[in-house]
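Quick note —
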Amino acid sequence: MFTRTFAAIITTVTVVAFLVSAPAAIASAPHTAKPSSVSLTSSYASVKSSTKRALHAQLEASNNPSTPANDSASIELAKGAQEDGESHDWTFRISSSVLQVASSGAGTLKLPSKDIAPFGAVSLQFKPIGKPKTKSCEGTVISKTIKVSLSGVFFFDSKSTGSHKWGTVGSKKSFTFPATNTITWLFRSANSENCISATTPCVSDVLWSSQQGAVAFDGFEAGNGARMFASRSASLSKPTGATRSDSNIGATKGLTVAVGGDGNASLAITGSGSGVAGSATITSSAPSQPFPSPCGNGK
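Predicted structure written out below.
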């Protein structure tokens, strides 16, 4: 049975500021190297479950030739907007033959029963739409992306129980993910670090995190908005190596941060909405430490 509401019961906090850097815009260039990975990402498809719930479904799969143990396929079911609400993500180990992608972007994703049972069936075909877009670093292509159509068999059973069960989604006969679906190739480049922008954007946020038992809590305040993210993960009995992650994202009221004379920070948080309930005062276990770094125009 899925848990829909996470209470904010938290004991520790980490308050930090962070910086974000982005690759410089560099003209694309031809490439001949083999990709280090290739992945398929579907759009978020609006689906009606067998229990009459309005959900969103997304599928991802990846091949990693140099590290085949990382080959995987995942299926996410979510309620609400992509940025908010309850979601569940099932991840399955796959062999390299499950995702077949030609250089044109055409291919198939066919999960054998041993990789996904008893959760359903996936046998999809994709075809390229338009031309690929590439990103380069010092004359070397580091990624290539192309839009694709995606359709075929997509049927998934959440195996949830109780009054809030989500049931099944998709079809054993025909299902289409709407645009935009993408195929992405990544290529290793020894010069990737040279393509980091010299100007680092300035970002000032309040971030906090904690954990109670198997549930992890994280939150942030940026601009006029504040959010709380609660998550947990579990290993599934079958198929081998499969896992499920459960998460819930909801709004919180503006955070109140105070630093005492001993340098320890405290933060007050209150749930605001159906996804987050309760309140808590979070206290750091050690004095805060500043770590200034230049950003923007260097000031």
